[in-house]
Amino acid sequence: MVKFGIIGAGGISAAFARTAAVTEGIQLAAVAAQDMTRAQRFASEFRIPHAYGNYAQILSDRSVDAVYIGNTTNFHYSCIKMCLAAGKHVLCEKAMVETEERARECFDLARGKGLFLMEAMWSRFLPKTKKVREWVQSGRIGRITGVQATIGNYVEKDPENRFYSPALGGGAMYDLGVYPIELIPYFTGLDITAYSAKILRASTGIDETVSLSLDLEGVPAHALITFNAAVPEDCWIYGEHGCIKIPRLHWGSDAVLYTPDMKEAEHFSQPDDNNMRFEIEEAVHCITEGFSTSDIATPEMTLQACRIYDSILGKR
């Protein structure tokens, strides 16, 4: 049984807590927020024994083996370092950190201390993701010839919310662009060898819409990432002998395989109301076995994403 603490009492932390409650091998031991009232309310809702009114206090709780970091992106780097320094394993919500330098420092620190660290890219662990990789690797669509993806929605243009505030680590790339960057290479089994982007910025300076082009070992891929419109959020992988549609790129339970004449050859569907449990199970497995990293959501996955952020957004 791995006892987790939670840093942050927002919506994504609530999703983690709900899922942890129905996942084997994990027990919630504590929660910390910047406001004690919020922490106590969260603890009461999810029946968590201990609540703390600042992030540092949770680290002295000896009942906590590992910490899930679910606060805003701007706090991730300092919280990861605090947790690792205190001897706690870490599962950190995406985007894990904002720069490659910070990501490398965190992974080096975890490795040096023999602690587990993983970016919470839950989509890599979904059953539909495994099925897509199986179709690709078994040659069902032949040689891959291209990839297209869209991801985004309309977000209220509030300069103080986490999406539009630079101080909170806002921007479409950190919030949504992380998905195509970290999923498309995994779906296809191809490495990103080059990239470029066209960025439209909001009045606050954050990247509101990004047109991202990736070169996957010579195969073109494109992703439209936006806070400015509701888009289908689908991904298409094209091949010489068919194609694959992944409805809802980063979540959901379905994937569809098509023949060259666009007839449905196979439809995979495995509904699950707690899809976050697959990444939690991986974290619990790695911690229990003494692994410092995951073979599925790898350090290189995170480092590459941060490298792309650095290049197209500029280091913040």
Describe this structure in words.
The chain contains 8 helices and 14 strands. The protein has 2 domains: 2-123, NAD(P)-binding Rossmann-like Domain (Rossmann fold), CATH 3.40.50.720; 127-274, Dihydrodipicolinate Reductase, domain 2 (2-Layer Sandwich), CATH 3.30.360. Helix content is 33%, strand content 28%. It has 316 residues and is α/β, with parallel strands linked by helices. The relative contact order is 0.16. The mean pLDDT is 96.
Write a brief caption for the model.
With 316 residues, this protein is α/β, with parallel strands linked by helices. Helices cover 33% and strands 28% of the residues.
Key features of this structure:
8-stranded mixed beta sheet; single chain; Rossmann fold; 6-stranded parallel beta sheet; Dihydrodipicolinate Reductase, domain 2; alpha/beta; 316 residues
Question: Topology, pairings included?
Answer:
Layout: E1 2-7, H1 11-20, E2 26-32, H2 36-46, E3 50-52, E4 66-69, H3 73-85, E5 89-93, H4 100-113, E6 117-120, H5 127-137, E7 144-152, H6 172-188, E8 192-201, E9 207-216, E10 219-226, E11 235-239, E12 242-246, E13 254-258, E14 264-269, H7 277-289, H8 299-313
Parallel strand pairs: 1-2, 1-4, 2-3, 4-5, 5-6, 7-10
Antiparallel strand pairs: 7-11, 8-9, 9-10, 11-12, 12-13, 13-14
Helix pairs in contact: 3-4, 4-8, 6-8
